[in-house]
Each structure stands twice: as C-alpha cells, then as structure tokens.
Amino acid sequence: MSQFKGKMFVFSAPSGSGKTTIVHHLLSLKHLNLDFSISATSRPSRGKEINEKDYYFMPLSEFEKHIKNDDFVEYEEVYKGAMYGTLKSEVERIWKQGKHVIFDIDVIGGLRIKRQFPDTTLAIFVKPPSLKVMEQRLRDRNTDTEDKILERLAKAEKEINYAADFDTILINDHLETAKTDAENLVRNFQ
Ligand code: 5GP
Q: Using one digit for the tens of pLDDT, what is the confidence trace for 86-139?
C-alpha cells in the first residue's frame, strides 16, 4: 500500500438523485485535490461512456476472477446480473498521486467503505427531493428502458432507508446549493 493515505469521500444515492452531477462538479474544483474512483462493472457501456474513464468494463468472467483473487475493496450485484466493484488497485492508484478518493457508488458499497476506513471516510447520502422528481430525472436521461427505470425506482425506495447510516445527508433540491454544500463538506473534512 502507498505511503500517502488520503481521505475517502463516498457519495451514495439512488440513481436519478443527481449525485453524479455533484461528483463531477467536485472533480472540476482542482483545489480539492480529488480523483474519481473508477469502478469495475460487468454491465455493458451505455451512451457516451468510455472504458477506463467512466468504468472498467469487463465480462462477468473477468469480474469473477477479481473476486476470487480478493482484488476488491467492496463489490455488489447492484442490479440483477450486473456486478459493480471498487478495485484495491484503483484506490492505490489515486493515493499514489497524493490525492483524495471520491466514490460514486451504491448505498451498500458506500457503507462497506465507511466500515473499512471509518476515520478517513466521509460518507454522504445524496437525497432527491422526492421519488417523483427522481423518476422524472431518470426519464429525462433517456438511457434506460421502462423495465430498468422501474427496477431503479424500486431500488431507490429501499435505499432511502439507509440514509440515516451515513455521516451526512445532502438534499439535492436545488442543484447549485447542493454543489456548494458538497464542496464545504469535502473541504471541512480534509
Ligand atoms: P449505473 O449503472 O447507473 O452507472 O450505476 C448503477 C449503480 O451502481 C449506481 O448507484 C452506482 O453508484 C453504483 N456503483 C457504481 N460503481 C460501484 C461500485 O464500485 N460499487 C458499488 N457497490 N456500487 C457501484
């Protein structure tokens, strides 16, 4: 493991909560010295996603090899048949650059990271103002089938119950305010 151990900022939320937009904003603020933890996934890429930038896309067989080798900090079957996980090598890559790690991962994975690194992790739950707003955001995104949208909504209802286990809840009601709040949270924890 690298000498430098940076902080870990976990952003977890139901998809459609706006968490990815907030994470991208934080990454654009160079003074925060953050780098994005690129997850491995067995799901195919969609839209404009780029391999090794958005995700390490890989077939399920390769993902399973990594599980067997104990290569993951955490992993999860987030959706039926779709595995997602954080590789130890990814955290190491970021620490080696002397940067803090920012994670955009699901609720269960986020809490696993917090449990493993309790003192150096700030776990933030991004809450959409309502499930209705979230549903609209998913539909506007126009990247998922109706079945997938319904699956994401069902999952969101369950995920909201975990909000209280996080260090802090960030309500994404007004995006600009949520971005500023997120920046302050990160700055104050560094
Ligand atoms: P999407 O398919 O929309 O990119 O992501 C689906 C869900 O998987 C999102 O909630 C996302 O945060 C989560 N996710 C992405 N990477 C990881 C990871 O490495 N571990 C876990 N547990 N969840 C992840």
A: 999 999 999 999 999 999 999 999 999 999 999 999 999 999 888 888 888 889
User: How far is the CA of 25 from the CAs of 36, 62, 182, in angstroms?
Assistant: 11, 32, 9
Q: Backbone dihedral region of 37: left (phi > 0), alpha (psi from -120 to 50 degrees) or beta? A: beta
CA 104 to ligand 1 center in whole angstroms: 7
CATH number of 8-189: 3.40.50.300
- Centre of ligand 1 from the C-alpha of residue 166, in Å: 17
Calculated CA dihedral for residues 34, 126, 180, 27, nearest 10 degrees:
20
The pTM (predicted TM-score) of the whole model is: 0.90
